[in-house]
Kinesin-like protein
Amino acid sequence: SNVMVQYEEDKMKKGGGGSGAENVKVVVRCRPMNRQETADGNSRVVEMDVPRGVVEVRSSKSLPTDPPKIFTFDAVYDWNSKQDELYDETFRPLIDSVLRGFNGTIFAYGQTGTGKTYTMEGIASDPEQRGVIPNAFNHIFSHIARSSNQQFLIRASYLEIYQEEIRDLLVKDSKKYLELKERPDTGVYVKDLQQFVCKSITEIQHVMHVGNQNRAVGATNMNQHSSRSHAIFIVTVESSELGQDGAQHVKAGKMNLVDLAGSERQAKTGSSGERLKEATKINLSLSALGNVISALVDGKSSHIPYRDSKLTRLLQDSLGGNSKTIMVANIGPSSFNCDETLVTLRYASRAKKIHNKPKINQDPKDAILREYQDDIARLKSQLSQKLVKKKKKRKGHAPGVDSDGGGTESEEELAEDEVDLEQQKQQLEQQRQHILNDQHMIEEEKQRLLSSVTDKERELNTKVAEHQQLEAQVVLLESRLLCGGKNIIDHTNEQQRELEQQRGKLADQKRREREMLQRLEKEEDNTCEIASTFTSLQQEVEAKTHKLKKMFARLQAVKQEIVDLQDEFISDRTDMQQTQEDLTKELKLKTLIIENFIPPDEKKKIISRAYFDEDEECWKLRELMRGNGSNGGSNSSVLKRPVSSSSRRPVSEYAKTQAALHHNPRFKGENIMLLDLDPPARTTRDWEGPEVAPQVAAALQAALTPIGDEVISIDASFGSLKSVRGARVAGARPKRNRRPVSSQRPPSHQPDVLPYYPKSRGLVPK
Ligand code: ADP
Ligand code: MG
């Protein structure tokens, strides 16, 4: 795609005056009406003029005479647009740039259900409906397949930001949240984020698939989760090429593919405490993104609030920095979403005005490709050095063995080396045979020689193993570096390549036409026709009336726009006020608790310990300092225990001897409990019941004998209906029953021998 490259560079020269500045490219895509919307009788309020890049929205609230709201973008795609079309026209040039060492970012912005995920991922199984991400995979790997004299290294990461927490989607069951860190040379990065080296298109597709699975797993409600979280797929493309100076030059392009959270307002219902925190966090990143865009476009603000959210910090370069950026604003066509659609379009037209300063990342410090190349070179030199040493050795000790000239290529040397080791092995075997067959040698001598041979053999074996290990390492590293035509099976033929070029040219043509049209319109509006000559006064009047009408309509539209913006602003402000009020309430409560329930001294201590953690962006309490002033902890709150020279605590000589001699805990410094098992002195078998005086026993017996035939029995087993009834029956005849006692046994079974102690009074079932 040389044409496009040329075109891009031309444009850059024109646009940025050599500085390479360019604007964020904004395209709008409207999805088709869905079945639900048609069934509900919603009308379409969006009109799109694709060749001119214009969207018109006729608000459902406005009068039919009101002019529609008009927005112009770099490109617009209506409900008939195909994924391929978007890719060829809009995204392909960006991915081409990434392959040449630029950073690139694609944002999908819009209300939930308008096609953000459809645009970014699409339906992977259907080639026609594949989104940007899979199409970019194809693009990247076919580019590599066609390249020559270049080495590539492709890495992929996938992360998600949900409620201001970053989660690695490529780690299974990742409960751990990742931190953002900053380095002065390479900027903001996510600490411990997994990067997978992808050697083929299937591998990178697998990476995406795994990430998507993990995203779904973490969510209790997938729909809600995906509409409230940002997913970022990151592809890093590093390439190296032999420069004219004879050295390898590395270029690195990083591509962020961002599926943003739904832009709709989050309802903050009954929020307090944790709920409130949650509600304010959900769209924090998105509103911070809006603030960053506003600040960038404003031109007056010197401070851009990148640090307000994780998303804006991570994608700082994409907005106003070193990156080529495209924003896709997704909208729905129906009257039902009219307000949201307008909000999205306004947001998007603001983003159009952001200037970026993309540049090719030449020889970056953190290039992994360079590391790999260095590693390979080092390992290879290790391998060849061994060979050289051996050769020298051989020349000194065994001049008989002929050594061939030896290639200068290290690979040849490696091969030779292997042959060489094999030869040595055979020689040893021969020696052994020779020794065994030698009849003249004494047995001891034989054994000695044999063992020395075995030792040598062992040594040789370990050498071979080492060698193989090194070689395997080289092979592994080399397999990760991709070269044109070799590693990639996906070999597109020349025809297809031409076809792609044709499509690219066509897309380019379309783009240029649109730009031309837009420029023309702008100029037409601006030039004053007064300068032109008119043949008659009448003609002049007509022309000027026409112009006036046009201008008046424009004025009306702008006035309406102001009103709309004010409305939007007011609703935004009430929303923020609401949040602020809630937060103030929360703060007042906390202050109340502090004032009334925390002693002033404690409060002071806590305040002196509190500090703001820049990395995690929250307040933390410093550890209570241990140790005395000399240790650096001048404001120590915990005193340190004095140390003894010999043991943990000061112990006198006397105490030591006593402790050694006796078990008296009095002299033990620690572990004063005696933990030896103490067997019980008596067992239950020895136990004998108490003696009961015969008189008492007789009295008891008399008391337990029922009078008359009244037998009351109570079943105490829990919940037994029978027993309840029995109890009631017993209770029902209280008059006759003077002494309501129960007996364990009927009177006839009275024991002859009195028990030593009273048996339990039987609560026995009937
Ligand atoms: P979002 O990610 O913005 O919430 P989705 O991408 O999930 O929205 O899209 C919602 C539905 O609309 C999906 O079923 C998707 O297939 C469909 N859809 C979105 N855009 C298009 C389009 N341009 N053409 C056809 N179907 C679309
Ligand atoms: Mg989605």
Residues 228 and 261 are 5 Å apart (CA to CA). Residues 116-117, 226, 259 surround magnesium ion (ligand 2) (CB under 6 Å). The two ends are 101 Å apart (CA to CA).
